[in-house]
């Protein structure tokens, strides 16, 4: 707006001036171009009666309020010398009403169209309330809602009529909780019966439908739970007479199992000397038979030991790994374990006898000649060569005796041949800590 020296007020839009004619219409007061006498018919209708104000929402959006209706700005769209602001309910109600504001958002040029809906309820950030909509909005398309105060939860306003009957709520059984299976699945247990999520997360009564675990037995029981898994919306516990499932708590100690995983050993026959101090101890006997252990065989192959039998890796499944018996395919026994080597599924009816596993004891000694020797099963071995896979120690009667040991840096046996063709000698410790050999009488 500009004011001439004569006191007359003009409105300037894009460098052109307009004067007020006094003609009123539904869109506002008409302003005619100052060049009307020269044949210019340009004009604007400016709304002067509506009280326009700007409001800022919590998310930072700016709206203009005119007669209780809100408008939002269409970025980059210019119309009639200003920016176009369209009704905020356009997407929901297809309302075509819009207003034109100047570039500096100070002058309202035009209000166009009529609203086809009631004015929305807006509450200020301070002293207002929160809007609660009907729980059946998605299912029944109910538009009823209520405005609740933030301070004392008092109802400020209730708007709209419900287009459906009131929902029915039942008291949830007290024995309701989630359980975790070893394969990673989560089940809902209600009154001793278990429920699982349907494929693709079936929607039911505004939540997720959990079906009875015996649904394959044509049991139609279900439980509808909210998306956050906190509220039971509705349920039907009309089971078809099947028994409640029995679940046992897995008492496997993960820390102890991790310690057992570091066990290394060699698979040898029953007649071979040596004894595993770990497996033979009464303290770990229960762990040895009830918990699978990862060991390294003489061929550098890793195996699982479960109840005295060995299993080798076959392939990966969705819930973990499948290990089959070392006598596969003659023996059909198998183990299904997860990432922590907890047994998920198993078939342990072997058609053969088991072999004992030993952690073969070895220790390094110094002979009276100053030479280092490795003692295993009463026989001595000396270092022959060092390879990438470890060290090779051969019998002290080499080359007449072909026995040897392949050990790693920690003197754990990786591979061995112990069929000596001679008798072993007795080792006698000297005063200086060295050893000498004596024949056994």
TrEMBL record:
Q: Which GO terms describe its molecular function?
A: zinc ion binding
Q: Which InterPro entries match?
A: Znf_FLYWCH
Q: Which residues form the FLYWCH-type domain?
A: 5-51, 59-117, 125-164, 182-240, 299-352, 367-422
What Pfam families does this protein's entry cite?
A: FLYWCH (PF04500)
Indicate whether Metal-binding appears among the record's keywords: yes
Keywords for the protein's UniProt record, in alphabetical order = Metal-binding, Zinc, Zinc-finger
Name this protein carries in UniProt: FLYWCH-type domain-containing protein
Organism expressing this protein natively: Danaus plexippus plexippus
């Amino acid at each position: 707006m500009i004011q001439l020296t004569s006191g007359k007020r003009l409105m300037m839009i894009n460098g052109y001036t307009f004067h007020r004619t006094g003609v009123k219409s539904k869109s506002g007061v008409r302003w005619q171009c100052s060049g009307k006498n020269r044949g210019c018919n340009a004009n604007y209708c400016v709304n002067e009666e509506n009280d326009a104000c700007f409001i800022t929402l919590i998310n930072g959006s700016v709206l203009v309020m005119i007669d209780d209706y809100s408008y939002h700005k269409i970025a980059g769209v210019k119309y009639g010398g200003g920016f176009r602001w369209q009704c905020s309910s356009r997407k929901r109600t297809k309302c075509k009403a819009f207003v034109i504001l100047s570039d500096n958002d100070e002058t309202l040029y035009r209000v166009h169209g009529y609203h086809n809906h009631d004015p929305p309820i807006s509450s200020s950030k301070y002293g207002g309330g929160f809007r609660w909509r009907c729980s059946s909005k998605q299912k029944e398309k109910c538009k009823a809602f209520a405005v609740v105060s933030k301070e004392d939860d008092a109802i400020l306003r209730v708007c709209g009529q419900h287009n459906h009957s009131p929902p029915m709520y039942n008291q949830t059984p007290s024995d309701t909780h989630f359980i975790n299976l070893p394969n990673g699945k989560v089940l809902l247990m209600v009154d001793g019966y278990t429920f699982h999520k349907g494929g693709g997360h079936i929607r039911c009564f505004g939540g997720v439908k959990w079906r009875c675990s015996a649904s394959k037995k044509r049991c139609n029981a279900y439980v509808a739970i909210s998306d956050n898994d906190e509220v039971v919306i509705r349920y039907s516990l009309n089971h078809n007479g099947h028994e409640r499932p029995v679940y046992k708590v897995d008492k496997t100690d993960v820390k102890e199992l991790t310690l057992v995983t570091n066990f290394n050993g060699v698979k040898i026959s029953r007649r071979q000397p040596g004894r595993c101090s770990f497996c033979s101890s009464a303290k770990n006997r229960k762990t040895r038979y009830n918990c699978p252990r990862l060991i390294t065989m003489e061929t550098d192959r890793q195996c699982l030991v479960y109840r005295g039998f060995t299993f080798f890796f076959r392939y990966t499944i969705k819930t973990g790994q499948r290990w089959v018996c070392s006598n596969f395919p003659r023996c059909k026994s198998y183990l299904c374990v997860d990432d922590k080597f907890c047994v998920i599924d198993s078939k342990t009816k072997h058609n053969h006898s088991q072999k004992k596993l030993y952690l073969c004891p070895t220790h390094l000694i110094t002979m009276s000649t100053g030479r280092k020797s490795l003692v295993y099963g009463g026989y001595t071995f000396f270092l022959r060569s060092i390879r990438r896979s470890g060290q090779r120690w051969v019998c002290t009667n080499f080359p007449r005796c072909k026995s040897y040991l392949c050990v790693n840096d920690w003197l754990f046996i990786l591979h061995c041949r112990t069929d000596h063709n001679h008798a072993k000698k007795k080792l006698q410790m000297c005063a200086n800590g060295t050893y000498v050999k004596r024949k056994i009488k």
